[in-house]
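Example record

One chain of 319 residues, shown exactly as stored in the release files.
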Amino acid sequence: MALLLREKHVRALLSMQETIVALEDALNALAQGKAESQPRTRLAVANGVLNMLIAAAPSFGVVGFKTYTAFREGVRYAVFLFSAQDGQLLAVVEADRLGAMRTGGMSAVATKYLARPDATIVGLIGTGNQAVTQLMGICAVRSISLVYVFSRHQREREFFCQEMQRLLNVQVIPVITARQAVEPADILITATTSAEPVLYGEWLKAGCHINAIGSNWPHRRELDFATLQRSQVIVTDSPDQAQEEAGDFIIPANEGLFDWERVHNLADIVSELRVGRASAQDITLYKGLGIALEDVVTAAHVYYLARKQGLGEEIDLLH
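Predicted structure tokens for this chain:
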């Protein structure tokens, strides 16, 4: 029978280090043509949006999809996993925590391959749920000593810093402007819901690496055009999906200011099909969108762990 894996199971089973390893393996499979991931499809209704992401990862033994609804009342996520051999349903996974972990894990992979090895200072704009796993991921791949954090609301900003300092055992300092978080940063994270830029290229330190993960809508962007101009290396998890969703690129491209040829696939960097950072002074940029393969492979990892440890609820469904 299939397994129903709830949020509590995902939290108990999924570590950041193992998420990063699974995602690296997935990107290598994608670069080698051994996995496939289709861009997100969205269906809007009067009160919200239904989203669907489909992927096949035969080398992981699975095919599957993530679906979620985004309504004013909340967002609800689930991943359905099927056997790549006989199509049987393997698992239904509640995927809120899973999505946050794979998003942080993908930024960690990008940071591992693109940030300077001696990067120790992080700047973070945004303090929502995604910001937590972003910092977890960065601290898993670099020896971070100091984090500067900005968000618009002082109380939430200060509470976030206290909690992350306790969780990660690094110094986490709230600042009162975005610029104060950006200027000293070796690694910069934008994790906001802003429709207008929160990061300006003139603030960037030479040699920094940027993980921009907040927007996946064509009319929203976190980065100004100067940030793209100053970035020597620009990668994303899906160039095809970026042309549909990455407002950070779409808006300047539509104005004739940005060339899509500059956008490369992170999978090609991970698999060494393309060179990443060429100089310690290079500014590098990863635009994270969230692709189906990331969810399906991470869910598969959780499923195999659950089977091994005897966790989850067996369900008699879709024989």
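Notes: The radius of gyration is 19 Å.
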